[in-house]
Specification:
The complex is a heterodimer of chains A (about 270) and B (about 220). Chain A has helices spanning about 1-15, 20-45, 60-85, 90-120, 130-150, 155-185, 200-260, 265-270. By secondary structure, chain A is mostly helical. Chain B has one domain. With about 220 residues, chain B is mainly alpha-helical. Chain B has helices at about 1-20, 20-40, 45-75, 80-85, 90-120, 130-155, 160-175, 175-190, 195-220. The chains are: A mainly alpha (about 270), B mainly alpha (about 220).
Chain lengths: ~270, ~220
Amino acid sequence: MTSTVQDATNSATGNPGPSDSGTRTTGILCLLGFIVVAALAFFATEPDDVQGDLVRIMYVHVPVAIMSYVGFVVGAIASGYYLRKRSPAADLVAQASIEIGVLAGVLTIVTGAVWGQPTWGTYWNWGDVRLVSMLVLVLLYVGYLALRGVGGDPTSQARRSAVVAILSAFMIPIVRNSVDWWKNRTLHQTSSLTDGQLEDLTLFTLVLSIGVFLLFFVWLTTKRFRLAWLEYQRDELGLGDAIAQRRAEAERGVEAAIANPLRDPASKGSEA
Amino acid sequence: MFRDALLIAGKDLRIEARSRVVFSQVLPFAILALVLFAFALDADRVALRDFSPGLFWVAVLFAGLLAIQRTTNLEHDDSTIDSLRLSALEPPSIFAGKTMAISVQLLALQALLVLGVLMFYGAAIDSLGDAALLGVTSVVSSVGVAAAGTLYGALTAGIRGRETLLPILLLPVLAPVLIGATRAFDDALGSAAVNGWAWLALLGLFAVVYLVFGLLAYGILLEES
């Protein structure tokens, strides 16, 4: 493990912060993508026959829902890799992508509720399978973030977190199915993507929006990972650096004392 | 492995029999929960009878958390888990043994709580089939809850704030058990027209999944850090 830490550290020490040309390019692409999606979503696409303008929230709601699932799955894969290779970087990738996944999950619930109020006449509907299962999943991963927040020995924390991330990912189908059987009904639309009822431009906008949001996920996760990596380096290398600094100071002090023995009686005494 | 697991389970249950923490603290807590639910629902007998399966399972889960925390702390407070490992016991055996012990405690708790629900909430078991459904549901759910609880107990063992972390991590995981077991009890106690036996499939799946995960992952969690 030490060698992986060392390698990763060496490759990252040249990195001054969470940004570089790669993330900047990705960020600019995301921004341009969002502008194009917003223009298409608000002006170019037609309102829905039944839902009217409300349908436009779909261009955010569906992509963030996909983004949160991607975050959870990436988190589980990175955690599995951590348990095999014990690479601290993989642990931090898991942390970063699950944090973004939780954020996207909360956004999914909020956008769903905002859409639900005018459409169903209520912000929350316990009869809706997807709503309830998303809430339980987000709570599951909030627990993961709470576990990461307690501190303590970093290795044991990484191990515990990795196990929770993998277990939680396996809970996704169980939670989905149990909630599904619980009410056995849903107000939710069937998948807008696959039911073949979308017009060409609407479909194009939705797919483009999903693509842009996934790019946004990559951008956010990379940034979050870099930040976590810097924190990790600070914690991991902080003590070693501090000792090295004190040592260097001590050596400088001794050299100064040799060069000018009369200035400081204390160092003169130690020299004698 | 099975013999080792039985040894561990026997040890935990012996400690429990001598200290009686489950009976002197966890069971009163569960009964208190039943009483508080009655207050919260304004002692409406019809509402209490209709909701008795759900209230029963919420009480079981909350009280179960205490039992799980207690069994986990047994090993981790004085690092006896290291002694267990030094006795050449494999982590899967330890997991299986602790799961058995918690299952037995949960079953004893439920047996007494069912009496409480019948008495306080006016729920009724009409036939032998219903009684069988009740019993099988209890056993399968207990194994699932115990397996997940043992695993998450080890996950949060020995870290700061474990008393609050365990519920945050475990309760969302147990949501499918709450749903499935409540529905099965709905059938057995006649509070809703559902097919309770079908819900056993979900409970069984949950128990199997967490048994497998526990056997696989318990060793990782016991590793030296």
